[in-house]
Write a structure and sequence with these properties.
MetI-like fold, 0% strand
Length: 278
């Protein structure tokens, strides 16, 4: 009897802790959203007043019409899309080679690739900028995409290699006996069985590239091709006296990443489990 009571109290305590953590994480979003619907005057009078306030969508209309935030969305989507495309293209091929193929120096090359994860981009951004400027890629989408490729490819290879190692060798050998070539094995065996890790990479690196400020801020000077996060950082510095407008921009910028995570969160758990147990 006492054991059951202790178990119930433990469950209640865990529930209360999780509830408190959830509220602590959700409240900042609620605070920004609600205040983005206020006028500047109402916000300055009392930012924590959530009752009896006239709400308006004027701040969102201003972000769409005046600041052309959908064009900024396009820039961010283009960069994120091509980054993920190249990460998966190179990552799947390289990870399969490290996981299943036998060649001289494989372990040494793999360790060298993985070691690149520990070099911060802040330490390499100056030579990257100089190199890209010499080939006239600065202030283009490709400057950011190629930089992201160098930054994140070792992480993708680490995750996918550990996942692909769990694919039974017998399945690959059977496919080879059936006449499947290298890319046929990738298409019909490796990719379907490694799908949790692949989807994890898509979700994670979409969120990372969408929210990144440092790299596009350095490599993109033209406002017409800047990402939404960089443009909002500029907006916040210029419109410090209008926080409600800032909140509207931040909420709009956060929507794609929140939707991606909310819809595909189960794949994040599966992908992490697949990569950590192989």
């Amino acid at each position: 009897m006492a054991a059951k009571l202790i178990q119930k109290l433990t469950n209640v305590l865990i529930f209360l802790i999780l509830l408190a953590l959830s509220i602590a994480n959700i409240f900042p979003l609620f605070f920004m959203f609600y205040n983005s619907l206020k006028s500047r005057t109402d916000y300055l009078i009392n930012p924590f007043n959530f009752l009896g306030i006239k709400l308006t969508w004027d701040n969102y209309a201003t972000m769409i019409s005046q600041f052309k935030i959908f064009n900024l969305f396009k820039n961010s989507f283009v960069i994120s899309f091509f980054t993920i495309l190249f990460l998966l293209g190179f990552g799947i091929v390289a990870s399969y080679a490290f996981a299943k193929l036998k060649f001289k120096g494989k372990n040494v090359i793999y360790l060298l690739v993985i070691s690149m994860m520990f070099i911060p981009v802040q330490a390499t951004i100056i030579p990257i900028y100089l190199m890209l400027s010499k080939v006239h890629l600065v202030n283009t989408y490709w400057a950011v995409v190629l930089t992201y490729l160098g930054m994140f490819l070792p992480e993708v290879i680490l995750l996918m290699t550990s996942t692909f190692r769990g694919i039974p060798d017998e399945m690959i050998e059977a496919a080879e006996l059936d006449g499947a070539g290298y890319f046929g094995i990738l298409r019909y065996i490796v990719v379907p069985m490694g799908m949790p890790a692949i989807i994890l990479c898509i979700i994670f690196y979409f969120i990372v590239t969408w929210n990144d400020l440092f790299t596009p801020m350095i490599l993109l000077q033209d406002m017409d091709i800047r990402t939404v996060v960089v443009a909002l950082a500029s907006l916040i510095s210029r419109y410090t006296g209008d926080p409600t407008l800032q909140f509207a921009g931040l909420i709009l910028a956060a929507i794609p990443a929140i939707l991606i995570y909310a819809v595909f969160q189960q794949y994040i758990i599966k992908g992490i489990s697949a990569g950590s147990t192989k």
